[in-house]
Amino acid sequence: MNDSECSHNCSNCSSAANCSSKKDNQKPDNSKFLKHTIVVMSGKGGVGKSTISVNLAVSLALKGKKVGLLDVDIHGPSIPTMLHLQNEHVLSNGEKLLPVEKAGLKVISVGLLLENPDDAIVWRGPMKIGAITQFINDVEWGELDYLIVDAPPGTGDEPLSVFQTLTGKSSAIIVTTPQEVSAADVRKSLSFCKILNIKVEGIIENMSGFVCPCCKTLTPIFNIGGGEKMAKEFNVPFLGKIPIEPAIGKSCDEGEVFAFANSETETGKIFAEIANKITD
Ligand code: ADP
User: Fold this and answer.
1) Cβ neighbours of residue 215 under 8 Å, at least 6 residues apart?
2) pTM value?
C-alpha cells in the first residue's frame, strides 16, 4: 500500500498484516513491559481454554513469576467469574487502565469494564481490535515475565489482533480434548500459527479421563491420549494431560483458582509441570 492510500489507522486496516508502511512500524514497543506473551487458543469453545489460562497463570505466579492475565474473549468473558471478580471494575489513573489484582495476577477483561455483568457487547471487528490494542498498550501492567491471554475459540480478530499488537516475544498454547474429532480444530489453530510465524509452545489435552473423587480411579470418558497423538502428528511439543476433576469445575464456579489451593494434588502438580515446561 502506498502512503496516499494509507488510512494511518493500522489497527483497523485489513492490509495491516502485510503492510510495510512507516506508520505500521511505529507501533508502540510493548516488549519493554511484556517479556513473553502466551496466547491460549482452541478450535472450539468449552474445551477448557479459560480454565487452563487461569490455572496456568497462577501456576507461573506460584513459581515466583510476575504474571498478567488478559481475557480477550470479548463476547463471552469468563475470567471475571472464574476469579470471582464480577463486582470489580477496571479503574484508570488518567493515563492508563489499572488491572484488577487477584491470586497474584494482574487481570484485564472486557467483563471488568461492564456496568452489569449480563450486558452484551455488540462490537464489530474494528472496535474489538481497538479495545485489544488498548488492553495491551494502555494498561499499567508493570513489568511482566508472562502475560497469559485467554482468546475466544477459533482464529479470528481476537488472537490475530493480540499477535499483531505485540512487539516482544510471543507464542501460543493449543488446548484440545482427547477425541479424534478435535484433530481438525487443532490443525486450524496450528495453521494460523504457521501463517503468522508464531511459535507453538505445545498442546494441552484437557478433560483427559475422569478422576473419581472417591476411589481416584481414572475413567476415559472422552477417551485419553488424542492430544498427545496430535502433538506427535503435527510435530509440536505435548505439554500435559489434565483430567476432568469435579474440583476444577467447582472452583471455576466459585471463583477460586484450582491450582492455587490444590497445588499438592495430582492434577495441581500437572499444572505445575506445564508451568515448568514453559519457563524451562
Ligand atoms: P472454554 O474457555 O474453552 O470455553 P472453559 O474453561 O470455560 O472452556 O470450561 C468450560 C467448562 O468446563 C467450565 O465450566 C469449566 O469449569 C469446566 N472444565 C474445564 N476443564 C475442566 C476439567 N479439567 N475438569 C472439570 N471441569 C472442567
Assistant:
1) none
2) 0.90
